[in-house]
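In this supplementary section we document a worked example of the pipeline. Step one takes a protein sequence of length 83 as its only input; no multiple sequence alignment statistics are reported here. Step two produces a three-dimensional model, which step three serialises into structure tokens for compact storage. The input and output of this example are shown verbatim.
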Amino acid sequence: MQLRATGVLLGDEIKALNIIASGAAEQCFKSASYDLRIGDQYVDPAENIDKKTGKVKAAAVILNDAPIVVPAYSSIVVSATKY
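The serialised model returned by step three reads:
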């Protein structure tokens, strides 16, 4: 399989490259994606990554019923759970 240098991976390419480490569910493969379910932990890199070392300063935060607001042009790292 020849991959493109840029762009989105197709579902078949995700399968072929074994990007999903274990427990991949067939129904989660879409034409240009793999659907993940967000788990119960997250890290906000803007608040928890040591800028000198690049390492996480604090343990992951457990999600509760409160919404998490992710500002535009920022990100969070979340755990994933099985489908």
